[in-house]
Amino acid sequence: MNRRDLLALAPALLLPGCSSTPELKPEAKPAEPITGLHALYQMYQYSRTWATDLQAVRCSSIDITQVKPQPGKVAAWQAVFASPSLGQQRAYTLSVFDASVSLRLGIFADAPTSLASDVHYFLLAAARTDSDQAWDTALKHAGDYNVKNPNMPISYILEMGRNINDPVWRVIWGGSVTSSVFSILVDASTGQYFETLH
């Protein structure tokens, strides 16, 4: 093979290297909403670096417009834990989406505050019914109201019951307790319907 033959072959030898396509990065999976207990347990594990005698005070949903909620699931939750030994309580926020400067992806803690004497808290093990199950139960007792208000936002709060010795889910038709005129209480321990609030 002479020099002229080698020069003729050179373009063909270079072709395989030129024809390779750049690797495509896999598309980021869209953020998925999560249930209340799933979020609560993640925040509980995270908060144990602050105190080891934690009791749950409240877990409430936070609406994020960029992530569509599903029945019993939202994109962000806030939990408040109490430490009786420290005499303090502390709020934690978990979000599956980077929504704003104050609501970022991940788990973040607020500064501890004094524990009020009238705070009612509960053991996490007492809450055995998740928010999606609470939604299913609530819907059985709010079917007509839900049909008449199809576009109303749904929010959720888990806290110790005032008239029951168990934690309860409050499924709220509306953005908050103060703006709502209808909600259903579900026993978070047994999963049973407890009360309708108008």
Task: Give a short summary of the structure.
This protein is an alpha+beta fold and 198 residues long. It has helices spanning 3-19, 36-47, 131-140, 143-148, and strands spanning 34-35, 55-62, 73-74, 76-83, 88-95, 106-109, 113-114, 154-160, 167-173, 183-187, 193-197. The chain has one domain.
> What overall form do the CA principal axes indicate?
globular
Query: What is the count of helical runs?
Result: 4
Termini distance? 94 Å
Largest sheet: 9 strands, antiparallel
Mean pLDDT: 89
- Tell me the strand percentage band: 25-35%
User: Could you estimate the helical fraction of the residues in percent?
Assistant: 10-25%
Element string (H = helix, E = strand): HEHEEEEEEHHEEEE
What Rg is obtained from the alpha carbons, in whole angstroms? 26 Å
Assembly state of the chains shown: single chain
Strand tally: 11
Q: What are the low-pLDDT stretches, counting only 5+ consecutive residues below 50?
A: none
What structural class is derived from the secondary structure elements?
alpha+beta
What is the total domain count?
A: 1
